[in-house]
Amino acid sequence: MFYRRHLPHWQKPGSALFITWRLYGSIPVSKLALILKEKDKSKRFLLFDNELDRAGYGPTWLKDSALAQKVVDACRFGETELDLYRLSSFVVMSNHVHILVWPKVRLARITKSIKGYTARECNKLLGRTGERFWQDESFDHAVRNEEQFYRIKRYIERNPVKAGLVNDAKKWPWSSAWNE
Predict the structure, then answer these.
(1) What is the DSSP string of 11-44?
(2) Which residue ranges make up each domain of the chain?
(3) Number of neighbouring beta carbons within 10 Å of residue 107
(4) CATH number of 2-171, picked from 3.20.20.70, 3.30.70.1290, 3.40.50.720, 3.40.30.10
(5) How far apart are CA 158 and CA 146, in angstroms?
(6) Residues ≥6 apart with Cβ < 8 Å to 153
(7) Cα-Cα end-to-end distance for the chain
(8) For residue range 85-119, what is the model confidence (pLDDT) as tens digits?
């Protein structure tokens, strides 16, 4: 299944999806333009994710544990109550989210449900109404094989380590790797 907004989105039936979305305004427009000029999709994603991990620009609202927990709860709710997907891994960072899911519905429904709900709830906690919380576009990648699936799962769960936030992925409470 293919559709396009600003970016192309492919959803291959029977494949897992790696989805990333970010807070509105978390990357400067000039920097984003440079990243999007990169032809190699893998390099483009790494440039994009490295910029987000630096968290040097824009809001970092998800550093607030109450807001991060809202997003974690919404990701789990999307699996257990809404039955939108089977959740394989996730991480909530200061300005972005990564999830790895086996979708049961179209990608647009998944992102609309999670991002719409969390935007309203997080904006309430921030005392904001009617303001953009998430960037409207998400990045997604259809997982091609089992090896890639496990590489992406490790990447997601180690993201807080890579960003220098913790030294052990199991110590990041807003991740599927967290060991309570």
Answers:
(1) --TT--EEEEEEBTT-S-HHHHHHHHH-SSHHHH
(2) 2-171
(3) 21
(4) 3.30.70.1290
(5) 18
(6) 88, 89, 100
(7) 38
(8) 999 999 999 999 999 999 999 999 999 999 999 99
CA distance 49 to 166: 17
Q: Residue 42 carries which side chain, given as an amino acid letter?
A: S
Locate 39 and state its tokens: 């032809």
pTM beyond cutoff 0.85:
yes
The Cα–Cα gap between 150 and 127 comes to: 39
Q: How far apart are CA 129 and CA 150, in angstroms?
A: 39
- C-alpha dihedral, 166 to 167 to 173 to 179, nearest 10°: -170
- Please, are residues 25 and 61 in contact by the beta-carbon 8 Å criterion? no
